[in-house]
Design brief:
Structural class of chain A: mainly beta
Structural class of chain B: mainly beta
Strand content of chain B: over 45%
Helix content of chain B: under 10%
Radius of gyration of chain A: 14 Å
Number of strands of chain A: 11
Number of strands of chain B: 11
Distance between the termini of chain B: 35 Å
Largest sheet of chain A: 6 strands, mixed
Oligomer: heterodimer
Largest interface: A-B, 26 and 29 residues
Order of helices and strands of chain B: EEEEEEEEEEE
Chain lengths: 116, 114
């Protein structure tokens, strides 16, 4: 059974600081997704990581994937209040190099609060 | 605009009652999914469907049923056998096979017991 663990589950940080969220998974997969969820809202796709060594950046967020270590990171640079949300990683259970996502297993999420 | 529409936004269920949550997409996606989200938890897969007239159980299918008669629609019925239905339900869809795109999510239905 594929397990996906995120840490920390709660993160409170000050504006302007940097921090990293970690996503570990238990079996082989080479596709990983990061999503953002605002309170009471749906999930918004942030990044799709499709191969070992993949790195994607959007604004103050950068995601990377190390399939050998079964680890993905979401790095936050110079945090701002607007980044406050819950961030989920999700791993494709079949891990095929091609194809649309089939079954995803989600981590429990990291609730990020950025304080002024 | 293309997207996924879930209705209703809020739903209340009485004891012993079945309720149906609607999910419609106009993205021309083949695959559709239903997830349940409980407070402080990640999403757990209830059912998924890769093509019309076919669907598979996810990790927590007991007490739920689905149908996939049309490509655009994937309704979820929460039956009276589901003893703890209070949760946030999210429907998603995705392309398949070779597009490497993320799943797209609807805005969710919040279900509570009366």
């Amino acid at each position: 059974e594929l397990k996906v663990e995120q840490n920390p589950l709660f993160l409170s940080m000050q504006e302007g600081k940097n921090y990293t969220i970690y996503c570990n998974y238990s079996t082989t997969s080479d596709r990983l997704y990061w999503y953002r969820q605002d309170p009471g809202k749906s999930l918004e796709s942030l990044f799709v990581l499709l191969s070992n060594g993949a790195v994607k950046q959007e604004g103050r967020l950068m995601a990377s994937l190390d399939t050998k270590a079964r680890l993905s990171t979401l790095h936050i640079t110079a945090a701002v209040h607007d980044l406050s949300a819950t961030y989920f990683c999700a791993v494709d259970i079949k891990g095929r190099p091609q194809g649309g996502s089939e079954k995803l297993v989600f981590g429990k999420g990291t609730k990020l609060t950025v304080n002024p | 605009d293309g997207g996924i529409t879930q209705s209703p936004k809020y739903l209340f269920r009485k004891e012993g009652q079945n309720v149906t949550l609607s999910c419609e997409q106009n993205l021309n996606h083949d695959a559709m999914y239903w997830y349940r989200q409980d407070p402080g938890q990640g999403l757990r897969l209830i059912y998924y469907s890769q093509i019309v007239n076919d669907f598979q159980k996810g990790d927590i299918a007991e007490g739920y049923s689905v149908s996939r008669e049309k490509k655009e629609s994937f309704p979820l019925t929460v039956t009276s056998a589901q003893k703890n239905p209070t949760a946030f339900y999210l429907c998603a869809s995705s392309t398949r096979p070779v597009r490497n795109q993320p799943q797209h999510f609807g805005d969710g239905t919040r279900l509570s017991i009366l």
